[in-house]
Predict the 3D structure of the following.
Amino acid sequence: MIEIGKMNTLTVLKEVSFGVYLDGKQLGEILLPRRYVPEGCEPGQRVEVFIYLDSEDMLIATTQKPRACVGEFASMRVKSLTKVGAFLDWGLDKDLLLPFGEYKQSLEEGRSYLVYVYLDNSERLCATTKVDRYLDKTPATYVPGEAVDLVIADKTELGYKAIVNGEHWGVLYENELFRRVKRGYRTKGFIKKVRDDGKIDLTLEKPGYLRLDEVGQAIIRRLEINDGFLPLNDKSDPESIRDAFGISKKVFKNSIGSLYKQRLIRIEADGIYLSE
């Protein structure tokens, strides 16, 4: 089924002077303007396009990809403010309208805000900063250690709120973050815990021994390219460890302890050595 506001792969039906017409199935023929037609494109070929309504409410296609499709969240910059709302830069030539009634707060030109993309009653694409209404509608059934997709939202006293798989709110705690994040940043993360009240604790590091295995391999590789020595050990300050590996001191200590037990390294006062 062809969907407005999403990426679709459509077949080229015919070529005209101003572009090509695509087979939009139940939506009929859809124009892909000449400036977006891939070189060498001809009838019978399939093209991946984004479909939306133009200023005259006509269906149009583009090979440009937006920062977010219908039903998705993204951070977008305000290009202009008008009486009807804000217009956002979302990666297409045609800007995305954030209606005035969908403001959660006052907006400023040039600043970026987390938004949700939706279709209004006229099937026009719009954005809203009132993202809470689209989250936590179903119970969280994640399990600890499960990999998830995250979109970083607002900074809080505890750390950062993040959208989990486009469906739930979760929290990344400040004291467990060992790399920089910012609003709108997309990344992989992991479920740390789903609390009894349904709230979700997140981490950017694989929990437990899965993460330690990766860290251990990274430590061994670093030792091999540094003549078998690193000036770090379980007494090193957390900042030096984070600068070297992007991990916490606790994870580092556990990992070198595991490597030591396997007799892969020696831990000395001045650092760690590869075992001979």
About this structure: The first helix runs from residue 208 to 225. The radius of gyration is 25 Å. Residues 17 and 96 are 28 Å apart (CA to CA). The chain has four domains: 7-62, 73-132, 147-203, 208-274.
